[in-house]
Amino acid sequence: MLIILGAGFYLLTNNLIPHMITKIELDFATLEFHDKIVVGTIYEGVDLSQEQGGEIFKMIRQQFGDAPYVLISNRKHSFSFNPFMHNELANKQPNLKGFAVVARTPVQRMNFAIEQMFIKIPSGYFSNLKDAKSWAKRQLALHPNTQESARSIQNDR
Q1: Closest CA to 38 of 102, 127, 92, 116
Q2: Where in the chain does DSSP place strands (E)?
Q3: What's the pLDDT at 84?
């Protein structure tokens, strides 16, 4: 099913297939929503602005609400952004429990090393999406859903 949401993005979903991902296409990126994991792919040549980064987190909040999640940046295209944005965006997302980068070149590895200086949450670098998703699942296991945790604390009283 394709739903046109306006403002340059689309929602692709299929509720008939179990574990089907939801995919949102923005003017500058694609976001794929898996179970508490979002894989973002920025398009070739984009100079990612803080406003565009904010739009990504807005879409994530709409999909996941208050649930904990991990963001995977799938860097299969060349793009640029200011790593200081992590202070203004990623570090201010209370439900973001991990940030992974999937990249394949030595330059991308060095760029991630610089980014890590600004990231205040667990982060990791991976050469493939499968390993990044495995790491993301381990991070999520450390941070169970806060709503479920609150209910279990209340029930223990």
Answers
A1: 102
A2: 2-6, 9-12, 22-25, 29-34, 37-42, 47-48, 69-74, 80-81, 96-102, 123-126
A3: 82
For the chain, the C-alpha Rg in angstroms (whole number) is: 16
User: What domains can you pick out in the chain, each with its CATH number?
Assistant: 23-147 (3.30.750.24)
Give the Cα separation of 110 and 87 in Å (integer): 19
Q: Are 94 and 117 in contact (CB under 8 A)?
A: no
Q: How many CA atoms lie within 13 A of 70 on its CB side?
A: 26
Longest C-alpha distance within the chain, in Å? 55
Secondary structure (3-state) at 9: strand
What's the pLDDT score for residue 119? 92
| Residue ranges in the chain modelled with pLDDT below 50 | 1-10, 13-18, 147-157
The pLDDT score that the predictor gives to residue 137 is 96
pTM for this predicted structure: 0.80
Inter-residue contact 71 to 100 (CB < 8 Å):
yes
Taking a C-beta distance cutoff of 8 angstroms, is the pair 98, 121 a contact? yes
**Amino acid identity of 130?**
K
Q: How far apart are CA 102 and CA 109, in angstroms?
A: 9
Identify the pLDDT of residue 145. Answer: 65
